Amino acid sequence: MIADDPALQSLVDRVRAARAAGTALCIQGGGSKGFLGEAAHGEPLDVTVLRGISSYEPTELVVTARCGTLLSDLEAVLADAGQCLPFEPPHFGPTATVGGMVAAGLAGPARAAMGGVRDYVLGATLLNGRAEVLSFGGQVIKNVAGYDVSRLLAGSFGVLGVVCEVSLKVLPLARATDTLRFELTQAAAITQLNAWAGQPLPLGASAWWNETLVVRLQGAVAAVEAAAARLGGEHIEAAQAAAFWAGLREQSDEYFAGAARQVEADASVRLWRLGVPQTAGPLALPGEQLVEWGGGQRWLCSAAAPSAVRTAAAAAGGHATIFRAHDKSSGVFTPLDAPLARIHRELKRAFDPDRVFNRGRLYPDL
Amino acid sequence: MNAPMPAGMAAIGGEHEQRVQRQAVVVAALSALLPPRCLLWQLEDVVPYECDGLTAYREHPLVVALPETGVEVAAVLRACHALAVPVVARGAGTGLSGGALPHRLGVTLSLAKFNRIVALDAVARTAVVQCGVRNLAISEAAAAHGLYYAPDPSSQIACTIGGNVAENSGGVHCLKYGLTLHNVLRVKGYTIEGEEVVFGGYALDAPGLDLLPLVVGSEGMLAVISEVTVKLVPKPQLARCIMASFDDIRHAGEAVASIIAAGIIPAGLEMMDKPMTAAVEDFVHAGYDLDAQAILLCESDGTPEEVQEEIARMLDVLTGAGATRVEVSRDEAQRLKFWSGRKNAFPASGRISPDYMCMDSTIPRKRLADILLAIAEMETKYGLRCANVFHAGDGNLHPLILFDANDADQLHRCELFGADILETSVRMGGTVTGEHGVGVEKLGSMCVQFSPAELEQMSAVKRAFDPHELLNPGKVIPTLRRCAEGGKMHVRKGLLPFPDLPRF
Predict the structure, then answer these.
(1) Under a CB-based contact definition with an 8 Å cutoff, are residues B361 and B390 in contact?
(2) Is the whole-model pTM more than 0.80?
């Protein structure tokens, strides 16, 4: 039990002391996603002292791990049992931890087909700003006892507390995958993806860039074979396909490497992540776009004014986040409307009344 | 203006006076906001709202408001907020945990008139529906496009999407297709202050904290939901079902684990024990194996190729796990026949016993045989019979405790039996409610599952949305005082009205 972990007691003591002294703490895991979000403030609180897989039973389809466990270690253990985290969380470096994965709430190429981080969170143990260790949810798939606080922690950027331990639903690895390539304009690709998604096809992931649409089928052997025959396109060899999807997930492929270089070289360039309805047409914004998630996620590398990007995203029915940039002065995350902003402030107060954790990391007033 | 008082009301003068006065004030305030047809307060008009699907708990609402527009909902909420009057939102009233039990000093806000499908976009595979639209009506509307709404709670012909969101309802297919939360993109509603608020969005990963998982399953305690945007998914081309018999409950439990271990996620994986099989066979005559200690129903859906592959693999696993008899549905008619017994488990139980109490705990799958054996021991301990149906794929157990409510002692023993099952489930690493919700029914059991600090954190979450705790107060989160006084499981008696006898 995590409650018996002596490392947890040391964290509780730190939080209690910080609260008493009015000190801000900055939750620190592997640091692989430190570039995300608003700037971190406060004394570092190293939470990698909580590590290890607490329980894993493949036939229960659930794994419980402490926050400092390396994401790569967790995934290796799952793979040994023929299972995986179906939402393909990005690592962004070898030091990525399970806690950081939950706090950042990012999912990879399979997001549209398989769901996001929060869809797989079954339970969590939280160290809140009152230095209380609290458990919510559990290790079972169906559970409606009380508010679903554990899923609220996915993507919370640590502003509610330390995610000490998390239980995640896992799934068997797909028995078959096949990757297909098509030459299509962005508009045609978006139309095609939505048309396919309305049919019983084993779609797993998609990416469009540079007049090329790449689609991954995944599922039962017979279903993937039948779908591949039906969709046509150019078949991509398994090894090359795996490298492509990994490059997309980890943002090491050509598009993202190029974007990183541009951001590095030019302070006015930002890499944006836009969430829009899957059917939204191509966004009329300057800069190169890469389309994922069946049309639902658009990456934009652009020197456009943040207000222009946010306006375009909102007009399409979505939102825009600054992913990589030197200049984040316009705010990283889409501002909230009044009722939501108030609920956010009140939730922060409910979990962390003295604002001990990750001040300003998500929004300035949290 | 003063309504006649409910006959059986507690004759405490002060409280009675308070109620009469408050009713007059609330009726006056809401009369200015709603047409007369949308406001009920005479006893005979409010009696139909006295309970939901959990009829053991009844209360007359002070006033029932039936707004017809969002503007009216907002106005009612603003008025109630200003008067500090509790508001209990209500859908179809099919809930099984008393989540829509009225507040005797509060307004029941019926959203029955919000029954319109606002938009159905076949290309985007989404439907925007008002909260009072029935679950099945969404799939019916989407059928023309080859699409459907996946979560299918057993009450789907009657239950509304607003209620599904309030309870995070599941269904027999949720292992593969997810719960309500996984199939809802956006929820529009109103805060207790009457402000419009949107959780989630038409795009994935809405900005800020992900409030959707808090709101979904919050049993009407955080906001009043008026409109829901759901995901529609392509209808599987084919579904086939295997019915497998086992002569030992342990073998059946192991078969469930073996299917998962083989990397298969069946579309449905259900179990019935011997007493339940006997009860349903007598009712539906589906040809169930009456000698089996347990029957498993395993369904595969998808393309014909996919189904053929999966059925073959499941047959291998089931046979290997010691199934004494297996049968694969030949056609849709036979598949529905296999399911008919499972789907009629509750009415079938009603035929073999004057009353039954349905429990709803979840346990880790591996403890399936353990809990069934523990329940068998409890049958002896409490002197009552229990038939079991089980969403085996996701560990959600529905023991139906059979009793005669006319016998006060049986009712008492039934309550103890139920509480024992919930406690045992928590001890086995499970939870007190898998899909029916806490409502008022499982308030006591929440004290078993959560520490005082955890319950207090949940209360703080509620206050973040609803500072004066006016939305559906007294549900889901027990007060710490109640936990202490109740001595974990026995809080219901004396603290809540229990005027009628359970009739599910």
Answers:
(1) no
(2) yes
